[in-house]
Structure formats: structure tokens, C-alpha cells
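Two folds, back to back.
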Amino acid sequence: MPRALSQNLKIMGEQIMLARKRRHLSMQDIADRATVTRLTVSKVEHGDPTVSMGIYARVLFALDALGRQLQDAELLRNGWSSESHEARFNGRVVKDEDKVK
């Protein structure tokens, strides 16, 4: 494997680890959400080139989904609601069924 590719995988692994830690999640939390083992999450965080890109994608998806849930919870804790925001900035309330999921 070219050295540059190996270095990029290590950097990506470090960034994944930092994203997990910023969310205050354990490797097991991510492993459960990504349906992989904790050992596999560890390999991803170390930039192991033997882990498939599909696994990297599942771990990233798990981090993104959990990150959004945490951000939503924080917004709700601070009294923000999507309806009040939309009414204020768009002049109308968008119903849940109208929103893109």
C-alpha cells in the first residue's frame, strides 16, 4: 500500500475517533449502532487498511445519526422548536409530512 494512502487512513481513523469522543460515546456504542464488533471500531479508528470501506461507511453513518440526535436533544433543551423557527423565518409552519426525511 502506498505510504500516502496509509497515512490518509490513519488521519481518517483519528478523525473518526475524535468525532466519537466529542459525542461522549464509547466504541461499544458505535459498534452496536454500526452492527460491528468493538474490535472493528478500534481498527477503523487506527486506520486499518484491512477493514472494508463499507464498514468505514457504517461507522460514519452511526456517528452522524447519533450526532444529529444529540444536537436535536440540545436544541430542544434550549427551548428551540422547529415549528417556531420555521414560522419565524418562513412565515408559515411546515407540517412533518411536508418535511424531507
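---
second:
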Amino acid sequence: MSLFTRLAALTAALALAAAASAAPETRMSPMTATGPFDVKLTPEPASAAAEIAGIGRMSLDKTFHGSLQATSRGEMIAFRSATPGSAGYVAMETVRGTLDGREGSFVLQHSATMDRNEPSLSITVVPDSGTGALTGITGRMHIDIAPGGAHSYRFEYRLPAP
């Protein structure tokens, strides 16, 4: 592909992005769903390369309660450094159920680090992963772990107007 062709394609893509951002808003106001959830982590065999690198693998099995009545299944890979309190994980999970009365599914992508006990966590809806009445969903999930281990979520999301 010539430089001219690549520049023309880039210009067209930028024009489409600008037009899309100028389009009338078709999404509802931000919504928030909250509630507790149960999680089960099960160690899974890792590849030989992952084992050599010190990377572990686990399956995720969750049940959400509250505004999100759903189950999820997923995979996590993680690493813990030799420094106490430092680690990281990435995960993907598919959530299936009902969100504030709308049934469908969507995929969450996790990226987390613990830097000497200082946590940083990002959980976002994978673009265009929504199905059923959750098609077009976007959002971020926040997780809180209380003393004693009880988990809860706060899910800030948007859905297209019906």
C-alpha cells in the first residue's frame, strides 16, 4: 500500500470518527448497578512457557446479585513478584443474565496491578460484546472487597435507547 493510499485511508477514518462524535446522542444517561457477588477461583494448568515465567492461570466463576442478576465465566492469568505486595493480573469474563431488567450478555476485560500494596484496577466492557437487550452496552465495573472477603460491585454503564 502506497503512502498516499495509507494517508487517504487515515483521513477517511478520521472524518468518519469526527462525524460519529458529532452525531446526536443515542445513549441513555449513565446508569449505575450495584450489589454483592460471589466468586470462585480455580487453579488451572498453565502452559510450559507460563510456568517457566512464573505466570499462573485460574478460571473464574461468578454469581452477581442486586441490579445485575447474572453469572459469569472467564480466565485469569497472574504474576506475583518476589517483592511483597506486588503482583498483576489480566482476565476476560463473559457475563450472562439480566441488568436492570434487560437480558443479554457482555464481556468484561480486567487489568490490575498491586504496587507494594497500592492497587490499580480497570474493568471495562469490551466494545461491541453486548448481546440481546444489552447490545451496545459500554461501561466500567468497580470492585470492593470488604474485610472478611465479601465482594461487591459498582457497574457504571450506558445502553442505547430502546
